[in-house]
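DM from R.C. (forwarded with permission)

"hey, sorry to bug you on a friday — could you get me a structure for this? deadline for the figure draft is monday and I only need the backbone to look sensible"
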Amino acid sequence: MSLRDALRSAAHVDKLPDLRLLPLGRDWDAVRVPAETGFLALARLRAAEEELGPVLYDRLSQRLYFAVPTGSGGLWQSLPVHLLGAGSWLVAPDPTCSDGHTGGWCELPDDETLTDPAALRRALEQQHTDPVRHLTAVPEETPPWTPWNAPVSTPTSSASPAASRPLSALPRS
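My reply, with the result:
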């Protein structure tokens, strides 16, 4: 059974109809990875054109979950990951109702494809042997984060356009 099919039949989390409760350890396991590490591994897997199974991003806990076949427990030792198998449950959003605020599916194939554990391990190990070089340029002022759908405030007084701009938008002399 594909994970997408399992989501359709999974129990709802009480009072949260957009979230489902998935049992792990029967058809697949999940490898829980810190988000920063997980996104780098996901990018490497995509670049290598590896087949990807379901990948869930939990924004609130800053983690990614990769669905892998059961029985890969020995592969994850010495890595900063955690294998969730039999007896574990995964709270996952319904793919049709995700709001993006709590995270969502990075990958969710229609078929029974799962991420190859050996390929995932290689992608995770590359971070330790081939670290990504970050840009050192830091903007002078970082604007506060606002949701993409936040209303835009417009001045209602007779203030001049220059006076209503934030300080960072004013020309410098």
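R.C.: lifesaver. The first strand starts at residue 11 and ends at 13.
me: no worries. Residues 35-47 form the longest helix (13 residues).
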